[in-house]
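sry for the spam today, last one i promise. struct tokens for design, 130 residues
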């Protein structure tokens, strides 16, 4: 059921007319949280191949949301860095995401929200252990 819910949320994302695809949003989100990353690190974080993430970052580069920088000590290493435009885009997307999530969960009584927080807390704790 949770998988169905996530799928519905992804479809809702697409229907909202965001300037970013869900994958692009996730890439910008990781960059905003972790800072500059190598293509291989970003690919691993998103559970994608480096070739696939290159396509994503190329589109973000074309939009001006990221920059590619070669490492000074090893020219073979390319770091992906968030630009000012990328920071603004991710902030806008986060705000819209909060609205969407609020609309999904606003139908639940406070008691159910408390149960969800507890359940997700347990699941996140277990993930952190692994």
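last one done:
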């Amino acid at each position: 059921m949770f998988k169905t819910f996530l799928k519905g949320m992804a479809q809702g994302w697409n229907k909202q007319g965001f300037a970013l695809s869900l994958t692009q949003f996730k890439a910008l989100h990781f960059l905003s949280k972790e800072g500059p990353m190598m293509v291989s690190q970003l690919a691993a974080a998103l559970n994608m191949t480096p070739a696939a993430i290159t396509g994503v970052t190329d589109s973000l580069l074309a939009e001006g949301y990221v920059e590619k920088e070669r490492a000074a000590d090893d020219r073979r290493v390319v770091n992906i860095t968030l630009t000012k435009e990328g920071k603004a885009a991710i902030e806008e997307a986060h705000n819209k995401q909060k609205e969407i999530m609020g609309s999904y969960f606003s139908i639940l009584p406070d008691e159910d929200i408390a149960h969800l927080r507890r359940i997700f807390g347990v699941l996140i704790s277990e993930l952190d252990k692994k």
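The helical segments are 2-15, 22-34, 39-45, 50-62, 84-105, 110-129. ok im logging off now
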